[in-house]
Amino acid sequence: MNRHTLRALGIAALLSAILAGTMIPVAAGPSVRLSIATGTTGGVYFPLGGGLAALISRNIPGVTATAEVTPASVDNIRLLAAKRADLAFVLADTAHDGIKGEEAFRGNPVPIRTLAPLYNNFNHLVTVDGTGINAISDLRGKRVSVGPPGSGTEVTALRILEAAGINPDRDIRKERLSPAASADAIKDKKIDAFFWSGGLPTAAVLDLAFSPGVRIRLLPLDAVLAALQRKWGNLYFRSVIQKEFYLGLPADLPTVGVANLMISHRDFDAELAYQITKLLFEKRPELALVHKEAANITTIGAAGRSPLPFHPGAIRYFKERGIEGF
After folding, report:
1. 21: helix, strand or coil
2. For residues 113 and 308, what is the distance between their CA atoms, to the nearest angstrom?
């Protein structure tokens, strides 16, 4: 048998082995799939969650993650409770209710843990010229969206209204719309104002600000801060929406802030919690390309920015970094 015949037989054998899958092993698919509960498509949680899912899938071997559209904080905690989601973006005030078994979680505390404090949310009270609304007290008798059912926006909006002496069930015509649906409803003159708790800028508010024939107005909310803090403590704090974020704002706007958290169930795998927390901080510049609020994620004061206990995996990361309080 000559060398050409031997070579041909060798090639044939190699091809047979490849086709049979016996000679060159096929890499196994991802063994872990994570679901990240985010928020509505008009807010910040969903794009940021999509960016985080992509980072996890690219950087943690054997793991893929998917960002899920949800109403946001309240429903996200319920999804964690049912173990139908693995990670969630939530507001600190709703997380406090969840672990304490209060408000929407009355009698059913959820064993949730913080992986990392994120950026801060800014409460928006959005209206437009022509509604006759110049202050929060002018909402009486108006059509107002307080955020979608199951959202942290709704939780905070109802508290802000009560702090202002407005009964949300009697004094306004209450709607429960997402930020995108709220912006559309204002354009169509179906509502007069809407609340939104989100990062800066929020896509739905930007869309309204750039709509032809619409002059957006955001109203200050800092006057209710003292009443909120008397009841809820430092879950709420003073924040400022800078005028550069939204076309048409004549000046910086004082408002009420609340922290965002990335959380999991208490039973979430500790090694994964460590890797994801590390990834969040070490790949932050990549995440900021998805939404600029990611640039505001910081370890500074992290231990004091969550009303929940931290997950052991996250604690391991913060201790490695020498972060105070861990």
Report:
1. coil
2. 6
Do 256 and 226 touch, CB atoms closer than 8 A? no
Q: Whole-angstrom Cα distance, residue 148 to residue 42?
A: 12
Beta bridge partners of 262: 89, 116
Instruction: Name the one residue in this structure whose structure tokens are 């009443």.
Output: 227
Residues 234-252 pLDDT 10s: 999 999 999 999 988 999 9
User: How far is residue 174's CA from residue 158's CA, in Å, rounded to a whole number?
Assistant: 10
Domains (range + CATH), the chain: 32-119+259-321 (3.40.190.10), 121-258 (3.40.190.10)
Q: Which residue has the tokens 């959202």?
A: 151
CA-CA distances (angstroms) from residue 132 to 129, 137, 142, 215?
7, 11, 9, 13
Take residue 194 and report the two structure tokens written for it: 């809407």
CB 42 within 8 A of CB 148: no
The Cβ of residue 138 has, within 10 Å, a number of other Cβ atoms equal to 15
Question: How far apart are alpha carbons 73 and 260 in whole angstroms?
Answer: 10
Stretch (H or E) spanning 120: strand 112-128
Euclidean distance between CA atoms 296 and 238, whole angstroms: 17
Dihedral sign for Cα 127, 129, 130, 133, please. positive
Torsion of CA 93, 124, 168, 71, to 10 degrees: -60
63 exposure class (CB count in 10 Å sphere: 0-12, 13-18, 19+): middle
pTM: 0.86
**Cα gap 234→257, rounded to integer Å:** 10
> Which residues does 323 contact at the CB level (< 8 Å), separation at least 6?
299, 302, 303
Residue tagged 């060398």 (tokens): 3
pLDDT tens-digit series, residues 129-183: 999 999 999 999 999 999 999 999 999 999 999 999 999 999 999 999 999 999 9
